[in-house]
Predict the 3D structure of the following.
Amino acid sequence: LSRPSFSEQTRLPEPSKGADLPISPNAPLDHEFHETAGFIFSPLLTLPPTFGSAYVGETFSCSLCANNELPDGADRTVSSVQMTAEMQAPTQTVPFELAAADDGKDHSDLAVGESLQRIVRFDLQSEGNHVLAVSITYTETASNDENESRSRTRTFRKLYQFIAAPCLSVRTKVSEFPVQEHRNEKRSQTKPASFALEAQLENMADGPITLEKVAFSPKPSFNTTSINWDVSWPGTGKMECPFFMPRDVTQVAFLIKQQPDGKQSKSQVETTKDGRIILGQLTIRWRTSMGDPGFLTTGWLTTRKQP
């Protein structure tokens, strides 16, 4: 999981007049970028020196390569190369349908210096230890001076371990608005309940992220109204998506109202075994500084109805 970043290239200060060894300010740069001469980042990308961090909600992607590293003129050949892979997550083991990384043709016979490449993609949905298990099966054919050949099937297995950490920490709070009764209303009439959902989102990643969308998906017996940056208020114009650095916290809120009895009867409100009302789920989408997408859906949010 190698996340590239823009490489930093700093120009040297302008040489003083009369210097014995005048050095061009662009000497440290790999290329001379006249348009971005005053900007510290270049269009070039740099790979990190280590594996990096994997976060829940992102898509794990990598390329698997099986290389034929026999020396030129070897008396052995490699054929019928097969590659399989699976992800051992904390809650399940998922086999992969590997996608071809090249022209899509089946290159099962590898000449010296050739490679079989496949791409793995996996949506990280749970925290904890993950193991990518890759198995390679191939046929090795050896020949001797008498033009006799022997073939045997070989298999080896590689394990790659990493930990998926949370990218966003979500803390929610549900408050019920008190029901206001008017004198001219019948006491037997049941008023629809209204709730306020507040959620604090904390960036637990190593880099900045930008929230693209935060939405609440209510149960059929409720409807919801967003009161966040995606709502256009009169005279305010369109607001920018929240951008926050590591350990920064932003807050979102939603108004949740129960459908009137004419549309959804009270009996259709779903509850848990202990009598808590199920309101819905919170869905969050974000992007990292390099544009990598992330997606997270919370569990069912519940509340206890006031007596």
User: Anything to note?
Assistant: The longest strand covers residues 149-166. The chain is about 0% helix and 50% strand. Residues 141 and 289 are 49 Å apart (CA to CA). The two ends are 51 Å apart (CA to CA).
